Amino acid sequence: MSVDDSVTPPPSDADLHEGQSTLFGHPTGLYTLFFAEMWERFSYYGMRALLVLYMIKGFLKYGDEQAYTVYGAYTALVYMTPFFGGLLADRVLGQRRAVILGGVLMAAGHLLMTYEAQWPFFIALSLLIVGNGFFKPNISTIVGSLYPKGSGKRDGGFTIFYMGINLGAAMSPLLCGYVGETYGWHYGFGLATIGMLIGLAVFVMPTLVTQALIGLGAAISAIGMLVFHPDNPWTTAVNVFVAIALVAAGTIACVALSRGGLSASKGQRPEGMDSRHDWMVYLGTLIAIPVLTLLVSGFSPLTDDGKSLQLIPDETINSFTGDVQEDASSASKAVRSIAVVFLKEVSKPAGLVLTVIGIIAFGYLIIQTFKLDQIPRQRMIVALVLIFFQMLFFAFFEQAGSSVNLFTDRNVDRVVETSVVTESMVGETIQIEPTQEQIGYEWKDGEIFSISDLDQLRAEHEAKGFEVDWTIRESHVGMGIASRDAELPASLFQSVNPIFILLLGLVFSALWTQLRMRDSDPSSPVKFAFGLALLGLGFGAFWYGAVNANGRGMVSISWLLLGYLLQTMGELCLSPVGLSTMTKLSPRHLVSTVMGGWFLATAFSQYLAAIISQLTGVSEGGDTGSVIPLPTETVDVYGGVFGTIAVTAMLSGLACLLLSPWLSRWMHEQDER
């Protein structure tokens, strides 16, 4: 047999895009999807950056545990519904209609978030959950459909698409987060609403209108980032960088649209299926919204104590897990603590539903897998194994919006001080605008100034720039003094990871391309192993920063940034590669369902992340707000959990690396699908 007969040559550039117009070697439709997803992610991450802080500091006055529970239920359900959205798109609607329906629901949810009342808050979350279920898996599937089988540019295309996700994710904390924390929560959520509407319009409007929306949206957002930001050179530079990236992306997208944009044939309704069954989807969606409202709230508006309903009482859980003696090892105590938290969370409505649906969904995928012929079956097995490892990855990675977010708020020094208290000032009473720099120092009547005191003062003085009397004592020597504009809001750091992706995304894409040209490109399982190891090193940086905190329990910002950098490198090894791999390994009749399974596994990750974050809970809620301990009391709690995550992630990476030779063989990348 000749070489030409035994090896299927890769498609040429002329055949690569099946007649589609191209820009920079990729279909022009990729850039339309890039911008639509960018605005959707702007809305999602803008809301996510504020959510935990809003529940604790806003009108709900939740403590850490309740805030983590709602956050975990929300993020888990957000990633559970794409399984069903993918299934319905494959069977009834088609990807294009599913994306439009999802966008409308999400825009309504973001708008409702601007109204401060308990039931509207949870209804808004349920609208976001259902809308994301239709939007998220199907826009990713349309990206995959732009490339023919065997295309070597698919990974690069998904990396570019992933950069669109992260441009939106970088913008949202800089605008929604800063505006929400500084001027009012409802303003931040309002910006998220506008972002979702723009994303939807980009997807559905005619070409000329879409070009105008892209240009106008990019210009207004860039100006907003240049106007609304903390008053220090670092954040100014970051905002300028993201604004330039946004304008550049908008320009490229407009050029792509002038060459044709997204083909009307992509994402259409499945062959042989008409609109007669659409009403069933709409009715099911209408029924799902109140059900998900109760699940995401944990029935808390209906309980006597205002907390999530727990189906298994604490007494039963404690009897099941057993008591740990005082002299027991720290490992035994840790195992029991994890078991108690796990059973508590799983016994809450969202956890129970997620567990049942997960068993059914992955049972369905396993049954379908073993109905396939040998090569497709082996590919599906690899896909399921990789889904498991990505579930572990995101269970750790998604601490960013919960425990790492609160760690940043409470234990990371975020102030660029303008001066410090000197010995010559002892005995004076000065006027200062209180910031994070005063936390941990003695205040009036001998009390220690806490985060709760700072939050209360800011709630009492809505306008920026207020000052209080502060009598200088000897213990204050060395204390920093700064204005609030010099304090970086904690939510802003939600943009660090996506900004690193913008800086490194093309670098990694070029790296994989160069390695592939030299026949040295690591297989997807090896990339997954690298991703887990780098994630572990990132949490190791958080742990090391906590161990080396100063006397006030404050951690240098450099350790936070290093940790995010390492985690981002891990994410770039795993997430865009994983999305591409799912579309390559899945049979065509299951591709959206498998993509939904990928996001369903991410839902489990989110719930596991909520369980892990419960181990860092340090405050209790109340009518007047949550009481937060001093940083010296919380830094070791966060550091201990982050250290455990670091070790576990690196061991998981090692396990994936050991399995990679077998997984690579079963991918059958040399065979034409």
TrEMBL record:
It is a multi-pass membrane protein. Keywords: Cell membrane, Membrane, Peptide transport, Protein transport, Transmembrane, Transmembrane helix, Transport. InterPro entries: Dipep/tripep_permease, MFS_trans_sf, MFS_Transporters, POT_fam, PTR2_symporter_CS. It holds the Pfam family PTR2. The chain crosses the membrane at residues 68-89, 121-147, 159-180, 186-205, 236-258, 279-299, 350-367, 379-397, 492-513, 525-545, 557-579, 591-617, 637-663. It is found in: Cell membrane. PANTHER family: PROTON-DEPENDENT OLIGOPEPTIDE FAMILY TRANSPORT PROTEIN, RESISTANCE PROTEIN MDTM, PUTATIVE-RELATED-RELATED. This is Dipeptide and tripeptide permease B. It comes from Novipirellula caenicola. The lineage of its organism: Bacteria, Pseudomonadati, Planctomycetota, Planctomycetia, Pirellulales. The gene is dtpB.
